C-alpha cells in the first residue's frame, strides 16, 4: 500500500471519532425564512476564549461575494454593550434583511442590495459574553468588562485566523458603531502592537471603521445641548442661559447651582419627546406592552411607523427551533435569544479612549470615521471636536460627497502618517447609526473608501 493510500485510510478512520475537525459542519447553506440556497458562503460557530476557553463566542462569517481571496476582512461590532451580531447582519450592513410584513411562523428574509459583504469578508460577532448566542460554561465567566472585551476579541481573532489560514494575508479591519467605539480603539492598538512585534499568528491589521462612535462619554453627553440648539430644538435664550449658568458643563452639574439645575430641567423637558436616534422620526414606546399595542396600531394605520419595531422580529426568528439548528446553536446553552441583552454582568471602564485614537494617528493604518447629522445620541459635533484636537494636517478640505447626483453628506480628510489618512464623513439625513437609515449611501461610501477613491 502506498503512502498516499495509507493516509486516506487513517483519515477515514479518524473523522467519525473527531467530528469537530470537519469544517463543513459550520457551513450554513439555507436559513429559515429565505427561499432557496444562500447565494453567498456563510459560516456559523463558536470560538472559545478566556481561561480554559470557558467563554464561547458565537459568530457569523460571510465570505466576500467579490474576491474573498484578496478582499479585506472586517470584524464588525455592534453597540450596546450586549447587542447581537444578528442586528447588523439583518438591519445594517449584512447580506440579508428581514421583511417587516410576513405571514407564517417566522419573518421572511431577502437579499440586502447594499450589503457590505458584496466587497468585504465580514465577521459578525456576539460580544461580550452573554450577548446573543454567546455563553459561558461557568457562572463566573459571565462577568465581563471593557478590558475583557478587548482581550477576548484579540484571542478570538487569533484563533479565527488559525482556523482560516487562507485569509491570513488579507488586510484586517476592525469596525463597529456606537458603544463599540470605546473598545475598538484599544483593540486596534493591541493588534497593531502585536503586528509590529511580529506575534504569531500575524494579524495583518490595516485600519478601522467606526460609525457614530463612542469615544468620550462626557463629551458626547455634553455636546447634546449645543446640538439641540443648532438643530432648532431649544431657543437661543435658553442655550445662552445654560452656557452662562452651567459654565459649559451640562453633565456633572452641581446640585447647589440652582440656576444651572433650573435651566437643565427646562432643556430636558423640551427634548424629552425627541427621538435621539433620529430627531426627525417618531419617539417610540419601549416597554413590551406599549410596543405590542403600537405595533397593532401600525398594522391598522401605516402612517405611524417606528423602524425600531423591526428589531423585535429578530427575536422571533432567532428563537425558532429550525433557525437554531441551521446556525448550529448548541443545545442547552442559551434558553432565550435577545437582540440586545440588558442584563449583562458588565463593567464599563473605558469612558474616554481619545488618547488611543490619538496614538493610532502615529500608526501605519487607515481610518474611516463617519457620523449622522440627525443623530443626537452621539452628536457629530463631539466626534468632530476630538478629531480636530489631534491637530493633523488637512489633506482634503470640507466638501460635499454625492450619490446619484445628490449630496449624500460631507467629508474631510486628514493626513496621519506618511500615506495614511483619517477620513471623516457625515451622512446627510441619517440617524444612529448611518447604515440603518441610509444603506445605499453608506454602501457607496464604504465601497469608495476601500477602493482608495475619493468619497
Automatic annotation (TrEMBL):
It comes from the Eukaryota. Keywords: Carboxypeptidase, Hydrolase, Protease, Signal. The keyword Plastid does not apply. Pfam families: Peptidase_S10 (PF00450). GO terms for biological process: proteolysis; secondary metabolic process. Gene3D superfamilies: 3.40.50.12670, alpha/beta hydrolase. GO terms for molecular function: acyltransferase activity, transferring groups other than amino-acyl groups; serine-type carboxypeptidase activity. Residues 1-24 form the signal peptide. Belongs to the peptidase S10 family. PANTHER family: PEPTIDASE S10, SERINE CARBOXYPEPTIDASE, ALPHA_BETA HYDROLASE-RELATED, SERINE PROTEASE FAMILY S10 SERINE CARBOXYPEPTIDASE. This is Putative peptidase S10, serine carboxypeptidase, alpha/Beta hydrolase. It comes from Lupinus albus (White lupine). The lineage of its organism: Eukaryota, Viridiplantae, Streptophyta, Embryophyta, Tracheophyta.
Amino acid at each position: 500500500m502506498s503512502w498516499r493510500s495509507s493516509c486516506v485510510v487513517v483519515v477515514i478512520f479518524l473523522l467519525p471519532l473527531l467530528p469537530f475537525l470537519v469544517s463543513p459542519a459550520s457551513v450554513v447553506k439555507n436559513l429559515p425564512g429565505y427561499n432557496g440556497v444562500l447565494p453567498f458562503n456563510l459560516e456559523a460557530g463558536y470560538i472559545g476564549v478566556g481561561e480554559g476557553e470557558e467563554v464561547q463566542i458565537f459568530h457569523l462569517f460571510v465570505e466576500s461575494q467579490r474576491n474573498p481571496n484578496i478582499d479585506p476582512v472586517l470584524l464588525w461590532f455592534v453597540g450596546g454593550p450586549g447587542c447581537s451580531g444578528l442586528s447588523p447582519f439583518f438591519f445594517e450592513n449584512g447580506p440579508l434583511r428581514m421583511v417587516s410584513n410576513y405571514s407564517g411562523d417566522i419573518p421572511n428574509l431577502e437579499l440586502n442590495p447594499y450589503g457590505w459583504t458584496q466587497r468585504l469578508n465580514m465577521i459578525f460577532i456576539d460580544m461580550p459574553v452573554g450577548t446573543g448566542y454567546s455563553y459561558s460554561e461557568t457562572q463566573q465567566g459571565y462577568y465581563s468588562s471593557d478590558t475583557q472585551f478587548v482581550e477576548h476579541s484579540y484571542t478570538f481573532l487569533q484563533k479565527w485566523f488559525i482556523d482560516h489560514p487562507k485569509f491570513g494575508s488579507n488586510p484586517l479591519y476592525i469596525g463597529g458603531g456606537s458603544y463599540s467605539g470605546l473598545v475598538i480603539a484599544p483593540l486596534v492598538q493591541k493588534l497593531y502592537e502585536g503586528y509590529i512585534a511580529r506575534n504569531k499568528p500575524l494579524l495583518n491589521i490595516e485600519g478601522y471603521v467606526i460609525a457614530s462612535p463612542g469615544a468620550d462619554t462626557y463629551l458626547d453627553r455634553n455636546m447634546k445641548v449645543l446640538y439641540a440648539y443648532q438643530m432648532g430644538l431649544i431657543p437661543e435664550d435658553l442655550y445662552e442661559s445654560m452656557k452662562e449658568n452651567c459654565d459649559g458643563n451640562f453633565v456633572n452639574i452641581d446640585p447647589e447651582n440652582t440656576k444651572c439645575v433650573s435651566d437643565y430641567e427646562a432643556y430636558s423637558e423640551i427634548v424629552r419627546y425627541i427621538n435621539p436616534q433620529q430627531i426627525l422620526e417618531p419617539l417610540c414606546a419601549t416597554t413590551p406592552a406599549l410596543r405590542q399595542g403600537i405595533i397593532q396600531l401600525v398594522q391598522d394605520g401605516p402612517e405611524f411607523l417606528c423602524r425600531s419595531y423591526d428589531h423585535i422580529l429578530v427575536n422571533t426568528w432567532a428563537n425558532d427551533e429550525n433557525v437554531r439548528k441551521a446556525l448550529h446553536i448548541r443545545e442547552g446553552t442559551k434558553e432565550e435569544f435577545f437582540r440586545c441583552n440588558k442584563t449583562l454582568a458588565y463593567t464599563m471602564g473605558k469612558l474616554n479612549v481619545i488618547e488611543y485614537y490619538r496614538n493610532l494617528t502615529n500608526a501605519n493604518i487607515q481610518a474611516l470615521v463617519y457620523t449622522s447629522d440627525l443623530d443626537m445620541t452621539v452628536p457629530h459635533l463631539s466626534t468632530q471636536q476630538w478629531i480636530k484636537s489631534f491637530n493633523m494636517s488637512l489633506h482634503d478640505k470640507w466638501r460635499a460627497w454625492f450619490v446619484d447626483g445628490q449630496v449624500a453628506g460631507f467629508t474631510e480628510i486628514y493626513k496621519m502618517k506618511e500615506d495614511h489618512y483619517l477620513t471623516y464623513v457625515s451622512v446627510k439625513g441619517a440617524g444612529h447609526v448611518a447604515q440603518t437609515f441610509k444603506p445605499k449611501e453608506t454602501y457607496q461610501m464604504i465601497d469608495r473608501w476601500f477602493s482608495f477613491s475619493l468619497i
